[in-house]
Every structure is written in C-alpha cells, then in structure tokens.
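Two folds, back to back.
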Amino acid sequence: MTIEEVAALAAAIRREVARAVVGQADTVETILVALFAGGHVLLEGPPGTAKTLIAHSFARATGLAFGRIQFTPDLMPGDIIGANLFNFQTSSFTLTRGPIFTDLLLADEINRTPPKTQAALLEAMQERTVTIDGKSLPLGERFTVIATQNPIEQQGVYPLPEAQLDRFLFKQLVGYPTAEEERRIIATHGARDAAMVPETWGVTTCADAAAIGAAAEAVAGVRLVDEVVDYIAALIRATRDHADLQGGASPRAGAMLATAARARAAIDARDFVIPDDVKALAPALLRHRLLLSPAAEIEGQQVEDVVAAIVAAIEAPR
C-alpha cells in the first residue's frame, strides 16, 4: 500500500465514523493514528460523550471483529481471557475463550475493576498473546484496545497502575460537544431509539484487517530523519529533569512517539515526519506517563501545562 492509499483509507474511515458520531474530531483522529501505529487508546471523559459509539463505529468502518467488556468490581481475570473448563461429557478440559479474543476490544470503564483484573490485559496489550494454564495463545495481529474511564466519579474505582498506563499509546480527553454539535446530536440522535448502533446511521465497512495491516506496513516505511529523532529524544529526556514533574516518560514513550508520528504523516499523505507531527501528538502521548511533583499539585498545575511548556522550550528542527 502506498502512502497515498493510506491517506485515502484514513479519509474513508473518518468519513464513515462521522456518519454516526457528531463532532469529536480530535478523538477520531487520535484513534485513527493509533490504529495505523498499532497502539492502544485510553479515552477519558464524562458519561454520554459518545466514547462507546466511537469505538463501535470504528469497528464497523474498519471491518475488525468487535468485542466489549463492561468492567465491574466483581470481574475476574478468567472472565476476560477465558479458562480451561472441565467437560463432564468427554471427561476432559475444554478451552473456553474469553471476549479478549477479538480485533478491536472496548474495555468499558476499565477503572471500575480491581488491579488484579486490570492486569489481565497487560500481556495482551504488549505481546498480543494471553497465557491460560501455562499455554500461550496468540491474539490477532490487529488486536487493539480502546479503554474508557469516567473522571468524575472517584468512589468505587481503581486507578490504573503506571505499568498499564504505559501500554496505552494515547490518553485522549473526550469533552462535551460545542453548542452547534449538541444541537445536531439532539436533533438527529434524539429521533431514533437505536442511537448506539452504527449500522442505523449508515456506517459501512470500507476496510478489513488485511488493509489495516498493509497500512501499518506502509507507515513503518515513513522516513524519520536524524533531526526529528533528536527532537523526540530531547522532549522525552526533558520530562525527566523538569522541576514540576516527579516522574518522567520512559524510553518506550519515545519509541511510541516516533511510530505515532509516522502514522500521522502517512494519514496526511506524507512519506516523511515533520516536527509538527511530534508536537501535535505529544500531549495525548505524554499526559498519562508523567507524574506531577507534590509542589506542582498544590499549586494546581496540570500535566498538559507542563507538556506545553516543555514543547515550547525545546527548539524544533527546521
């Protein structure tokens, strides 16, 4: 697949998702980049902001198998990955696969389940395999997790550990729509009962797993010059020395940022990365990897403000 074909495929997916989702252009673009970069996305926003509909619409548009897990406090790891269950008819154990065996997995309200269950996703997100009774079972090459969490309610939730947060390529903040977008939502979605079903809104399949895989291969061929590599390294290293940060980004974050920048360049029909690609993706890629210092928290600073200051301080190559 050529870079021009990757851009055309991205435009087609974006167009199909827009049939069901009103607004949320930044969120759609972030998931699109993650899809072509082979990464996972954490969506954080209040209820009713179309997080589930966006994930479902992406699955419909891309032709990927879709699965959903509604996380609850009593959910166990076996409920996610599956287990070997004893079959009394055959007197043998039979593998029962869990909902994780899919292409696009919606992990809904992931912070409502305990860390033990959250950890069931760690191996799957990093290695795209799961281990059941000592046997490794591969997931699909296009296995992607779109997780959601509600930032408003703080009771009965379990914050994701840093090790799992680092597995997410992006943490995207999903906000409320504009006044005009909200009017469109009320006028259109308020007229139908099946508002959460993408097919109802005419979302059609314009790709498949093979096409997404071919696009990912094309993305890997996008050029990343030494000056941009140095720029990414400088941004990542600056997070470890900043006075307002207690913990900085890992080397994995730098590698992920480079891959994501390649994907964004391909979506824009370019076969080379420019500094603007890095700048545009840095907030979503870094906000969940950085820890504010106690003094910065007392002052009421936000991670986004620190990231913006770092990006402004590091001179971009020309």
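---
second:
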Amino acid sequence: MTHALPKIAWIGLGIMGSPMSENLLKAGYDVTGHTLEQDKLDRLTAAGGTAAASVAEAVADADVIITMVPASPQVEAVAYGPGGILENARAGALLIDMSSITPQTSVDLAAAARDKGIRVLDAPVSGGEAGAIEAVLSIMVGGDQADFDEARPLFETLGRTVVRCGPHGSGQTVKAANQLIVAVNIQACAEAVVFLEKSGVDLAAALDVLAGGLAGSTVLTRKKDNFLRRDFRPGFRIDLHHKDMGIVTDAARTVGAALPVGAVVAQLVASLRAQGDGGLDHSALLRTVERLSGAGV
C-alpha cells in the first residue's frame, strides 16, 4: 500500500456500524460506506465519509472491507452473488466481518474468499452501543495471525480489548459465549430488581451497593439506569439476542456442551420476543420477570 492508512469500505451502518465507522473517520481513515437507509448514509457523509449506492461500488478499491450487519443471512447477502463483496473486491483485500453470526458461516466465508484471493477475519464485538461510541469495545478475532497483526491498528481504533482467539470461526464462538454470559447476567439482575422492589427496598441504593461487591458486573453497571427508569430503548435489541441465543445453543449442542441455565434464559428471551418486545433493549428481560411476578408492565 502506497498510502499511510488503508482505504476502508464499511457495509452496515446501524446502531453499532455508524459510531464505529465515525471513530475510523476521526482517526484519519478514508471510509466509503453502504447501508440500506438513506439517513444513515447522510450521517456518514456528514461525518466526513463517502456514501456508496451499492456494495459493489463501496468495495471496488478498498484495502479493507468491514461488514457489520445483523445476522448470517445478511452477511451472506452482502458477501456472495454478482453484486457482493467477493465478486467486486480486489484480490489481496482484507474482509473483516464484525457481525455476530454462526461460527460455521465465518468458516465457509473464509473458504469462499480464499478462492478469490481475499483474506477474512471474523471479529465480532461486545460492549453494545455505548462501547461502540466510546471506542472501548471488546473485539474477539478468528483468522490468520498475519492478517490479525495487519488489522490490529484498526481494531485498536474501535476497541480497547483486542484478542485473536484462534482460526476462522473462533471469534464467533467466543462471541456466542459472551452472549450466553450477558443474557444470564441480565436475567439474574432482572430477578433481583423485582425481588428488591417487591420487598420495598430503595432500588437505586441497592443496585449501587450490589455493583460494588462480587455481584457487580459490566452488565449491572451499563444496565442499571435501564432497570431504574424502565428505559428499554435499544442499545442491543431482544431480536438480536434471540438470534445469538440460537447460535450458542446450537453450537453447544454440536460440540456436546450442556447449557442448562442458558437454555432457560434462551426461552425467556424467546418469550419476550413472542410478546412483541423484540425491538426493546435486552435489559427488557425485566418485563418477563415482572409478568411472572404479577407486576404490571
């Protein structure tokens, strides 16, 4: 590469993709983006990026292509086919998929890209919308060490904890474990909130002291205000956590790992979605506990 920083194509400018791409722009990267919503493209250009009318146009002369879309079907839709990344990116480009998808989809994508001379890393993230905005995401990466080393400066612009976890698909496996822990943790917090409130305790005081002890967690710190205010505007939607619980339960079954508590929480997430709350933040697991406890929601 003749220029100092690689040219970036960014596909998918949602709750996570928009602030992440803006952090790259602030760091001096040239970012060309494509997404389905015009207002998101306008936001990118307002931040100093370039809007592209298609995936093909966005990736044409990119050194690094980053995808941040909801799930495996969307990754496949933007990667494959005549208008997709693999047919339109140049040989030697590095494709970094930061979506949370099945490990197998990442493995298959890396194999298909290899035939086109395109290198791939799976690099899902944890930290939610706040982590994306503040550039403190945890980034778990699967793929070749050399490609990881090349991408590291870019990852360090987006996150704080950047770890290569192994070969293709490993990042997604660790992300699945992350989503298991987060869901179980939110559920435990939600049960505690309902228990505390029904007991007549000052909830804000209780959550403050719990956060300072062994029960404290990043989940409790980040979601405390959601619980206190019943503010369930999405940082991370129940719909997406439902998808992720499907990934982790399926992957665990494939490798022969039992997830008894995870399976119960997966059903509670599914229940919340079935009741029409799929568009709410995953802290809305509180609503299910309230319903089960006879509290009005």
